[in-house]
Amino acid sequence: MKLYYSHNLNPRVAVAVAKHLDSPVDYVRASPRHPDNIEAFRAINPNALVPVLVEADRTLWEVDAIACRLSALAGSDFWRTDDQLPEMIMWISWSAYHLTRAGGTLYFYKLIWPRFSDETPDQAMLDEALADFRTYAAVLDQHLEGRKWLLGDRISYADFRVATPLPFAEGAGLPLAEFPQVQRWHEQLWALDAWREPFAGLA
Ligand SMILES: N[C@@H](CCC(=O)N[C@@H](CS)C(=O)NCC(=O)O)C(=O)O
Asked: For the segment 63-93, what is each residue's pLDDT rounded down to a tens digit?
């Protein structure tokens, strides 16, 4: 079983999940968008993006699907299958459409864009993303009040998924210090080797 990854936002989460679950995957570092690779890579992901999980009889792209599969293979409830499943999906979806969309925009334009463009990103777009991030971080902060993890006492994939942009907070300018519960929860995640250093020992 091979997990294709890069060091960017979403593949970072997939590698962290595999490390957290001690999944028996071979890690393959990939550059799917490199002109030399893009056409060949489409054979395993038509979107030419990572992460991708390749098994003998199936291939999955999208980090959420990969987390679901790795959790099932590990016999773990990291991906909940009980009555907490709807809440977990709620947070995963909310992350994709709200918090991580805002944080991901700041991550991309502040950390990735300058690597390949001299153009200054549109300030109004960055301001809007930052305002959105603050709006959604406030929602998260309120939910985390009195809860250790998003679903209560035990960590779940929702914690990893909602925290997708947080490891890049400093470079992306995400104002975590304004949200004490988010900051506390981020520090709890940071205490996990799999989350803090998912690429340790890999290429
Ligand atoms: N919706 C996809 C997003 C995948 C995606 O956007 N991957 C980006 C990194 S965040 C990618 O492959 N970029 C090229 C690269 O990292 O080389 C998921 O959740 O897995």
From this structure: 999 999 999 999 999 999 999 999 999 999 9
The pTM of the full predicted model, rounded to 2 decimals, is 0.97
Question: Which amino acid is present at 26?
Answer: D
User: Considering 15, 48, 74, which residue would you say is the last residue of a domain?
Assistant: 74
What span, in angstroms and rounded, lies between the C-alpha atoms of 191 and 132?
A: 27
Same domain, 135 and 44: no
Summarised one tens digit per residue, pLDDT across range 137-179 is 999 999 999 999 999 999 999 999 999 999 999 999 999 999 9
CB atoms closer than 10 angstroms to residue 170 = 10
Does the CB atom of residue 66 touch ligand 1 within 6 A? no
Which of 74, 99, 117 marks a domain boundary? 74
Ligand 1 site, residue 84, Cβ cutoff 6 A: no
- Cis bond upstream, residue 167 (ω within 30): no
Ligand 1 pocket member 15 (CB < 6 A) = no
Domain count across the chain: 2
Residue of 10, 34, 92, 107 to test ligand 1 pocket, by largest number of atoms within 8 Å of CB:
10
